[in-house]
C-alpha cells in the first residue's frame, strides 16, 4: 500500500516517522508532504523525501498513486473530490464533535467542553466524519493551552501506535459522532485575541481565558494602552509544591 502523509506539525512528523520504522509497516510505502504555506518546513525539511504539496492542484496525481491519505495536523482543506474518491483519515487534536476546526483546546478551556483526540474518516466538512477512535484527556487549572496541547500530541501518537495497523488494513468499526457539534475557524480565534478592558468577568473566567490564550512561543492575547501601543498578555501558572510557598516554607 502507498500512503500519502500530509503534516504541518514537527513533533507529529518526527514521531510518526519513528513509528513506521517498525517491521509490521515495512510493506507500506509512506510519502511525506507538507503544505505550501508552511515556510518553516520549507527552510528546515525540504527534500525529495519531504516536500510541499497543494492538494487541490494535484488531485488526479494523488488518486492515481495512493490508496490512502493521512492528515496529521494539516493546514489544508481537503477537496471534496478527494475525500469522496479515496479513503482519507484525519488525526484531529480535539474530541469530536466539540470544537472542530482551529485550536480546539483553546475553545474547550474557555467554553468548558471536552478535550481529547479523534481519528476519523474525512468527508466534505471540516473535522467531520465517522469516528475510528477517540479518547478524552483530563485538564487541570494550572495548565495553559500549550501544556494541554503537548499532552494532546502525546495522545495522538499513542492512538496511532495502537490503531495504525487497523487503519492501513481498513479493518475498524466506525462510530457516528454524538451530534454535529460546533466549528471554530481562524477568524473566531482572532476575535478572541483582543482584550476588551471594560468587560466584566469573574477571576475564574479571566484566568481560564488567559490559560487558553497562553501558548509558548506565540503572542495571542493583547490590549491597547492609552498611547495605542499593543500590549501582549499571557499567564504563568505554578502548582504549589508539597513544602508550600513563601518565605515561611523555606
Structural class: alpha/beta
Mean pLDDT over all positions: 95
**Total count of domains:** 1
Helix % is 25-40%
Unreliable stretches covering 5 or more consecutive residues = none
Strand content: 15-25%
Could you say which overall geometry the principal axes of the C-alpha atoms support?
globular
Number of helices: 8
Largest sheet: 7 strands, mixed
Query: How is the largest sheet built, in terms of strand order?
Result: 3-2-1-4-5-7-8
Radius of gyration: 20 Å
Helices and strands, in order, run as: EHEHEHEHEEHEEHEHHEE
CATH superfamily: Formyl transferase, N-terminal domain
What would CATH call the architecture? 3-Layer(aba) Sandwich
**Per CATH, what is the topology?**
Rossmann fold
CATH class descriptor name = Alpha Beta
**Alpha-carbon distance between the two ends:** 61 Å
Instruction: Tell me how many strands there are.
Output: 11
What is this structure's SSE topology?
Layout: E1 2-7, H1 10-19, E2 29-35, H2 39-44, E3 50-53, H3 59-65, E4 68-72, H4 80-85, E5 87-92, E6 100-101, H5 104-111, E7 115-121, E8 131-137, H6 145-168, E9 183-184, H7 186-193, H8 203-213, E10 222-224, E11 230-232
Helix pairs in contact: 1-6, 5-8
Amino acid at each position: 500500500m502507498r500512503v500519502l502523509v500530509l503534516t504541518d506539525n514537527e513533533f507529529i512528523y518526527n514521531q510518526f516517522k519513528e513509528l513506521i520504522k517498525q517491521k509490521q509497516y515495512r510493506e507500506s510505502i509512506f510519502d511525506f508532504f507538507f503544505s505550501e504555506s508552511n515556510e518553516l518546513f520549507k527552510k528546515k525539511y525540504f527534500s525529495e523525501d519531504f516536500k510541499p504539496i497543494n492538494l487541490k492542484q494535484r488531485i488526479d496525481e494523488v488518486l492515481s498513486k495512493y490508496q490512502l491519505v493521512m492528515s496529521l495536523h494539516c493546514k489544508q482543506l481537503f477537496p471534496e473530490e478527494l475525500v469522496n474518491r479515496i479513503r482519507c483519515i484525519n488525526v484531529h487534536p480535539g474530541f469530536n464533535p466539540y470544537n472542530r476546526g482551529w485550536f480546539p483546546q483553546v475553545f474547550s478551556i474557555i467554553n468548558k467542553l471536552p478535550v481529547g483526540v479523534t481519528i476519523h474518516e474525512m468527508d466534505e466538512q471540516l473535522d467531520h466524519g465517522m469516528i475510528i477512535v477517540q479518547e478524552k484527556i483530563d485538564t487541570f487549572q494550572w495548565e495553559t493551552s500549550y501544556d494541554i496541547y503537548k499532552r494532546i500530541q502525546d495522545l495522538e501518537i499513542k492512538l496511532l501506535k495502537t490503531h495504525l495497523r487497523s487503519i492501513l488494513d481498513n479493518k475498524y468499526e466506525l462510530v457516528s459522532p454524538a451530534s454535529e457539534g460546533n466549528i471554530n475557524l481562524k477568524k473566531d480565534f482572532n476575535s478572541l485575541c483582543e482584550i476588551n478592558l471594560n468587560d466584566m468577568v469573574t477571576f475564574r473566567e479571566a484566568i481560564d481565558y488567559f490559560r487558553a490564550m497562553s501558548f509558548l512561543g506565540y503572542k495571542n492575547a493583547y490590549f491597547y494602552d492609552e498611547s495605542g501601543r499593543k500590549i501582549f498578555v499571557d499567564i504563568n501558572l505554578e502548582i504549589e509544591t508539597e513544602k508550600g510557598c513563601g518565605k515561611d516554607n523555606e
